[in-house]
Design goal:
By secondary structure, the protein is of the alpha+beta class. It has 3 domains: 91 residues, Acyl-CoA dehydrogenase/oxidase, N-terminal domain (Butyryl-Coa Dehydrogenase, subunit A, domain 1, Orthogonal Bundle); 107 residues, Beta Barrel (Butyryl-CoA Dehydrogenase, subunit A, domain 2); 158 residues, Butyryl-CoA Dehydrogenase, subunit A, domain 3 (Up-down Bundle), CATH 1.20.140. Helices cover 50% and strands 14% of the residues.
Length: 409
Amino acid sequence: MAIDFTLEPELEAIRLRVRGFVDEVVRPAETRLLGERDLDRDSYIKLLFGLRDEARTAGLWLPHMPAEWGGMGLGHVELAMVQAEAAKTYYGPFVLNCQAPDEGNMHTLLHWADDAQKERYLRPLCEGRAMSCFAMTEPEVAGSDPTLIRTTAVLDGDEWVIDGHKWFISNAHRARFAIVIARTEDDPEIPQAANSAFLVDIPSEGWTEVRQIETMHGGTGHSEIRLDGLRVPAGNLLGGRGKGHLLGQYRLGPARLAHCMRWISQAETALDLMVGRSLDRFAHGSLLADKQGVQWMIADSTMEVYQAKLMVLHAAHRIDRGLPFKSEVSMAKHFVANMLNRVIDRAIQVHGALGYSTDTPLAHMYQHARWARIADGSDEIHQMRIAQRAIAAYQEHGTTRAATGDLPL
């Protein structure tokens, strides 16, 4: 029987090590990082990066990268268990150096960069000496359609000159470099071959951070960027001319799934809080846990977290096996993002006014969760692609089976 949802003993041991590290090391420090307003900047940085040193010492560094780059060499199924444990805390993924957008950029550089680019850009990321960003989205065109990108890169001698406008570039305020997607081809054979990717050092002349965009959860490094006559050496072209779309899609598949892994952890935390509150709160003659309306919210949330875990594990399995995974990742991303919003919303409802306050983490989680339905492809784009694949499967095979996971049942 090939289907087995258990972990090998050594992997189960890693999962428990991550859980122990998060509970015993990260969580106590996070209480200080998030709660003590008198913690000055130097103390904050020393405490936060000290946690990274402890992760290295514990052998829990870079779970997604191969051993030759200082990582744990875990596949996507194995990474799911690590991300799920790490994301039980706000800083967990950062401490283990598997946070977005750096994680996705590491995968991208490992696959697309030449040896010199890897040493200059990937090595510092893996060693925790640098942070990065991925600059594709633009305010003037729909972010869900990269073929509309207006930022241009024109070859001038041995340099590319980039002009354009980017926004919602996560981590740009803290990044040492960016992967910038720009249009290089005027008349490509297909629209998807118009763009190329470039490695851009930050700061650089012509790179201007206009502002950090204030979002529902505050100003946290989602920047608006102007690119005016930015010159980049020809050697900073990443992956070849016209490969920007392929590179972006390669990056976004596993990156979307990594988000899902972290979102499942957040949803499970919300479910735990919901059940804990229902067992603690007495009203109108009984505990909330005894009331059918609350039980339905708990039941729906439990089933949805279970569905989400199965979808993510199956999509990760397909990536690890080298099988087509776009449809499965799209379905997982859409479902998990919406599940996260629903579960947190129910948890707030069960907590009543307390859930709406900032006395619990739920309000903060809810602000972040709404972003999940937009980031890395909006709900509607994923639904469109899922439908197109189902229709194509039926047209080719006379059945939609291949579009529903191609599972043996």
